[in-house]
Amino acid sequence: MEIAFLLIALVVIVCCLLTITFLLGYLLKRVKSRARNAAVSFLVAVVALSSFLLIEELFFSYNTEDKEEVLVAHREAPIGGILLKLYADRTFELGGFRKVETTGTFEVKQDTLFITSTNNPKVSNQFNSRSFLIKENHLEETTDTGIGILAIHKNSLK
After folding, report:
1. Is 102 in contact with 117 (CB distance < 8 Å)?
2. For 57-111, what is each residue's pLDDT tens digit?
3. How far apart are CA 97 and CA 83, in angstroms?
4. Spans of all domains in the chain
5. What is the CATH code for 69-155?
6. Contact call for residues 113 and 128 (beta carbons, < 8 A)
7. Are strands 149-155 and 138-141 parallel, antiparallel or unpaired?
8. pLDDT for 123 beyond 50
9. C-alpha distances out from residue 46 to 9, 49, 59, Å
10. What is the pTM of this model?
11. Burial (Cβ within 10 Å: 0-12, 13-18, ≥19) of residue 133
12. Which of 13, 42, 118, 153 could form a Cys-Cys staple with 104, CB 3.0–4.6 A?
């Protein structure tokens, strides 16, 4: 998927540069064909970007079963961020922005969120359980395993 993203990004960048070039050519020489070329290159950029986003959402979405999300938290990083999604059926998914690395169940006790992996941690190289303090706008990991703080974007936990 990363190669597809790079190709789409390249197409969008080239189309935007062509659009600017054609627009400048039209403004300087008032040739209508340059304005038409600018419109076509801009349209190609918009269609390419829209198609990529649509395909990404349809085929590479975390929530393929259309579960109700009760909490979404993430942390961006230059190389692979972390995304945590909790669902109404008491399950969670944790991973990068494009790949679920572990799944399991969660429980909330007072101001603490406990997540327990149902994957085999010895095989998946992940964890058995982790806990987070639920703050006003972020989750704070109670033990230092590398996740640290996750910003909360949606929270409808009861």
Report:
1. yes
2. 666 555 556 778 888 888 887 776 788 888 988 898 888 766 777 888 999 888 8
3. 6
4. 2-59, 69-155
5. 2.40.128.640
6. no
7. antiparallel
8. no
9. 11, 5, 20
10. 0.58
11. middle
12. 118
